[in-house]
Amino acid sequence: MRNIKDSNKMPQRIILMHRASYCKVREQVEKVRKAQKMWAKTSFKQRRQFLRILLKYIIKHQALICEISSRDTGKTMVDASLGEIMTTCEKIHWLLSEGEKWLKPEYRSSGRSMLHKSARVEFHPLGVIGAIVSWNYPFHNIFNPMLAALFSGNGIVIKISENASWSGCFYFRIIQSALAAIGAPEDLVEVITGFGETGEALVSSADKVIFVGSPGVGKMIMRGASETLIPVTLELGGKDAFIVCEDVDVDHVAQIAVRAVLQSSGQNCAGAERFYVHRSIYSSFVSKVTQIIKSVTAGPPLAGRYDMGALCMHEHSEKLEGLVHDAIDKGAEIVARGSFGPIGGDAVDQYYPPTVIVNVNHSMRLMQEEAFGPIMPIMKFSSDEEVVKLANDSRYGLGCAVFSGNQSHAREIASQIHCGFAAVNDFAATYMCQSLPFGGVKHSGFGRFGGAEGLRACCLVKAVVEDRWWPYIKTVIPKPIQYPVAENAFEFQESLVEALYGLSIWDRLKALVSVLKVLTEQNSTNSSKLK
Fold this sequence. Notes:
By secondary structure, this protein is an alpha/beta fold. The chain folds into three domains: about 20-235 and about 450-465, Aldehyde Dehydrogenase, Chain A, domain 1, CATH 3.40.605; about 240-395 and about 400-435, Aldehyde Dehydrogenase, Chain A, domain 2, CATH 3.40.309.10; about 475-525, no CATH class. It has 17 helices and 20 strands. The strands form five sheets. A seven-stranded mixed beta sheet has the order 11-13-14-9-8-16-17, with helices on both faces. A six-stranded mixed beta sheet has the order 5-4-3-6-7-19, sandwiched between helices. β16 (about 400-405), α13 and β17 form a beta-alpha-beta unit. The longest helix is centred in the N-terminal third of the chain and has 27 residues, at about 75-105. Residues about 1-15 have low confidence and may be disordered.
């Protein structure tokens, strides 16, 4: 196995990014398309070799990958390890273990009328996947669609966020080096930078689009994709409910709750954004999370040992402040906030303190809009019916987490939440099970990535039927329905349908006799005509 070279040096922080024009994007898509035609002929063994080279590099250079992410997005090294490294390694491991199985032809039953046929589903690469990804996890958001696309035989063009282009371009070098190490076409993967018009050009020229972002832009992606009628997978964020029943271990669940809201400073697609706690343990739960939040210190992630890092964008703190002020104006109360380490005056807006808010309700924007920040709004509930109604009172439907001392009780509540995934007595565990699909409903989007569903979503799904015992048994059109059709053709069809699908054996036998009778009569008629 060849090593990846020249990808383990820290790039300079100041670098000129080129915005890809419409023509440039189409040109790059065509380059990838040519490379993909060669890559589609590779074996799964060759594709696994590519994955192993990547996995070896990632494990060896975890600190470098995390530091790049930290510098560009503000997350701590621990948050980067959890959200960038572990998720990506788990996806590679799943593809190595199970990927080929889900892309091999899948044989299906051929039914009663086609017993002499074999039926299967084949999975062929679509061509060029276009991925438009968000900034919150720049490493994983590039590798996640790239891994699925390449393993299924596609090429890919990835439009990285303008808010994380520096790190994205560095991570691209890792992919290029791994491709070179196995002698793969160098143009199989392209990473492009730019703004809205760059994304529009990619949508208009790719064979499928995967988009991670906001509902507003997701609708624009759909409109663009409708022009060429290409498939689209949309992951558009969430407002996930975190439900705590009365019979939990409060100390245990409180720690999970804080991680659920503070991971990557709350800039987490599957982060917990609405906390519903049973009124009988509400006070003790609030007390415990308040204690933890007050112990949290935010600061420059590479300048010291801080629990939480920065927000990726300066203007995001203004949005968070607006949501909090709206809640306070409507009766909410801040009961706890974390602290800051030494922060320069010009960087204050890049940080937002971990915050616990109580006395919230659904009239507040904080309980309706995706915050994407380190804010924990906690609301009481009294019954299962009430909390299910509250959890479903959202335009989003990405995921949920339900905690109870009785696992079947938690499972029952989770089953009633209208969302794409549920964690029972855990938070976001579904994403670390890469055998599972990931995606939502309602304004959280549709389509899935992850698991067999996500892998096959990168494929042309083709149904194939052929003779099971060729050339000994072939399809022959029965005489009554050969052109020109016989007078008793419909009588024949009626009997044939009942012979195949009648509910009782006796009904089917009687119908079979009728079928044979019609065929005998038809043969007699044909013989008479010949005489």
